[in-house]
Write a structure and sequence with these properties.
Mean pLDDT: 74
InterPro entries: prtT (IPR051089), XnlR_reg_dom (IPR007219), Zn2-C6_fun-type_DNA-bd_sf (IPR036864), Zn2Cys6_DnaBD (IPR001138)
Number of helices: 24
Subcellular location: Nucleus
GO molecular function: DNA-binding transcription factor activity, RNA polymerase II-specific; transcription cis-regulatory region binding; zinc ion binding
Pfam families: Zn_clus
Radius of gyration: 27 Å
Distance between the termini: 49 Å
Strand order of the largest sheet: 1-2
Order of helices and strands: HHHHHEEHHHHHHHHHHHHHHHHHHH
Keywords: DNA-binding, Metal-binding, Nucleus, Transcription, Transcription regulation
Oligomer: single chain
């Protein structure tokens, strides 16, 4: 039987069957019926119903599709069917080849069968990629084929882990004799060997030291390709996000990285390099960071990296690398859990409690000291989260003041110890010492903002002891901005720092604006210098963001801060600020047909809801569309972000891309 070869793209398929060319869509319907009827802006997350207005009001949210949109979906469907038929043809050809091999009593071609049929073709002529295009590889055999066996380790005593006596034999593993799983980005034609080499060098020289040299000596492209296609995809994606020359490769690398993560999700036999690839993506790719962190924690636990500390302390080199990687997973997890109001997935265990002893091993290096310093400060911040929770409506009892003071002392001790221990770094200069101060103030404002819990804009003065803590939060927030404004070395690293830094910069700005406006009567703090400080910070962000990729999170933060400042400026009245005769701000511009003052009438802040900075595709055409709630929930401002993470509209929507599009 002769198999007809069908064209790959939808255009060729239509030409083969005599269909006419699909007319170009001149205008897409993106607003729901309810919003179009009211002639107001319709804000949909990822372009999917319900929109924010209908969801809030409990309305039915539907979008009428035009004939042209239906035709486009038809063309996409044909393209998808074409690819499935091609994969079916390939699988049939492999089956025929295996039958011939069996007849000649030769073993089947394991190399060919190890590549999943669900892999995407090397080229994708469509402008956009839908989330459904991320495919999963089929298992080698059915789940019912897995088996279990009761085993007894004669060398161990009765005191062992209960599940150690039941061993699982499953087929969800790498094929024997293979290191990596599936083709890498170079094999798929996403980028060339030379481009991958350039991106690897960029990552190694500019970014890897922010992850405490996670690659170590593993910086050869051929070695990375041999060991882990997932690690290579993560490096190339993050490198393209920070590259001026190869930034156009970002969207394609991003999609390839997503496909690689999905393909390895259910493998039981993953490697350390796969975890490294997940961590690299999590630290810089905002839309999928939380999902990548979850996978990294799961794999690290599955490989029992948390138990390697026992032999690492005996100077075993392999255990040293395993423990080091577990520490990085711990830090990454806490970057995206505690600060966002989510319980962390990696808990405090012997490995974490022994972090200081880890530095005494013979393999420990300077970067390990920086990594352990992060372990120690996140242990303190985790205590804040676990002790006080996330109920921001409940005021902190005065009985809890001793606990807060002890935590503040712990932070002060941490800063004193590590400011003295960390020296000038060969690659990042004095950033090690400056970074200690930044992390200290990040944790301090997170802790001391507890004083504002349950406080409203019309509340009376705080208790003197609680006001002292509130003032400490304000001082730390100001220090964050001043450190960035006055240190050129920090500014030079803004285009490279992980997402957590961008998040805390945005939080410090919004925190100060709230305190200086809605809560100026509750806290007697120096508010006069806040607006000039925020304006200087906005200028620094604007200058740094101008050189960044259009999908970099800091670009959206810079635009948002500018729009906040635009609302703070204009014709003025002189508000009273905490009893001071000085005024910080003038009366804001007329908004929605009425005038509002910055103090008691700064009501536009109340209308800013769902501020989710990790959704970098949000519409920033107006400050009110920021999805960040400016209602003062001190911890939950960074703790109520939407944890639903999907491929962003900027990746999947053709009108928002140069080629296919992508990121964070």
């Amino acid at each position: 039987m002769e198999i007809i070869s069908l064209p790959v793209d939808g255009g060729g398929l239509r030409e083969l069957f005599g269909d006419r060319k699909v007319p170009d869509i001149s205008r897409k319907i993106t607003a729901c019926v309810a919003c179009r009827k009211q002639k107001i802006k319709c804000n949909m997350r990822d372009g999917r119903a319900p929109c924010l207005r209908c969801k809030k009001r409990g309305l039915s949210c539907t979008v009428n599709r035009s004939l042209q949109m239906l035709l486009e979906e038809d063309a996409d469907w044909k393209t998808s069917i074409t690819r499935k038929i091609q994969r079916l043809e390939g699988s049939l050809a492999e089956l025929r080849g295996e039958r011939r091999l069996h007849k000649s009593h030769t073993p089947p071609n394991t190399e060919a069968s190890s590549i999943p049929l669900s892999q995407e073709p090397r080229t994708d002529k469509r402008r956009g990629v839908r989330p459904s295009s991320v495919t999963m590889p089929p298992p080698v055999r059915a789940p019912s084929d897995q088996s279990w066996e009761v085993v007894m380790d004669e060398e161990s005593g009765p005191a062992t882990i209960p599940a150690a006596c039941v061993e699982e034999h499953t087929s969800y593993a790498r094929p024997p004799g293979r290191t990596r799983v599936g083709p890498d980005l170079i094999d798929q034609g996403v980028l060339t060997y030379d481009q991958a080499q350039t991106l690897l060098e960029l990552y190694s020289n500019r970014l890897d030291h922010f992850l405490y040299q996670i690659l170590g000596e593993h910086k050869d492209l051929d070695a990375i390709r041999f060991d882990s296609s997932l690690l290579l995809a993560g490096i190339c994606t993050v490198g393209a996000l920070h590259s001026a020359e190869l930034g156009h490769l970002y969207e394609r690398c991003y999609k390839g990285f997503m496909d690689r993560c999905a393909a390895q999700m259910f493998l039981n036999e993953n490697r350390l390099d796969d975890i490294r690839g997940l961590c690299i993506g999590a630290f810089w790719l905002s839309e999928i960071s939380w999902s990548l962190v979850a996978s990294a924690v799961r794999l690290a636990t599955q490989l029992q990296l948390h138990r390697s500390i026992n032999t690492a302390l005996k100077d075993d080199l392999r255990s040293y690398y395993e423990t080091r990687l577990y520490y990085l997973v711990y830090v990454c997890d806490h970057h995206f859990s505690v600060a966002y109001g989510r319980p962390s997935m990696s808990r405090e265990c012997d490995s974490i409690r022994s972090a200081s002893r880890f530095l005494a091993t013979k393999h420990a290096c300077e970067d390990d000291a920086r990594l352990v310093s992060q372990i120690n400060i996140w242990r303190i911040s985790s205590s804040v989260f676990e002790t006080f929770g996330v109920d921001v409506e409940k005021p902190i009892s005065l009985d809890h003041l001793p606990k807060i003071h002890r935590l503040m002392i712990s932070l002060d001790t941490w800063r004193a110890d590590w400011s003295e221990s960390l020296k000038t770094h060969a690659l990042i200069g004095d950033y090690s010492q400056i970074g200690v101060g930044l992390h200290f103030h990040f944790a301090k404002v997170f802790l001391c903002s507890l004083a504002f819990r349950g406080v409203t804009s019309d509340s009376h003065d705080l208790h003197p002891d609680m006001e002292e803590i509130a003032n400490a939060a304000v001082v730390s927030a100001k220090s964050i901005l001043r450190t960035i404004i006055h240190h050129k070395s920090v500014q030079s690293h803004l285009h490279g720092l992980p997402l957590y830094f961008d998040t805390m910069i945005a939080f410090a700005v919004v925190f100060l604006l709230k305190v200086a406006t809605k809560f100026s009567r509750s806290v007697r703090t120096g508010s006069v210098d806040i607006l000039p400080l925020v304006k200087d910070m906005a200028s620094v962000l604007r200058k740094a963001a101008a050189k960044m990729h259009r999908q970099h999170l800091l670009r959206f933060i810079a635009e948002g801060v500018d729009k906040l400042l635009q609302r703070c400026e204009g014709p003025s009245t002189v508000p009273q600020i905490a009893g001071s005769h000085a005024s910080m701000l003038q009366e804001s511009q007329a908004y929605h047909g009425h005038t509002e003052t910055l103090d008691g009438g700064f009501n536009w802040i109340d209308n800013m809801q769902n501020f989710d900075l990790l959704s970098s595709h949000n519409d920033f055409s107006s400050t009110a569309s920021w999805p960040y709630t400016m209602d003062f929930d001190p911890v939950m401002d960074i703790g109520t972000w939407d944890t639903t993470e999907q491929i962003p509209t900027s990746i999947t929507s053709p009108q928002n891309s140069n080629e296919t599009s992508g990121l964070r």
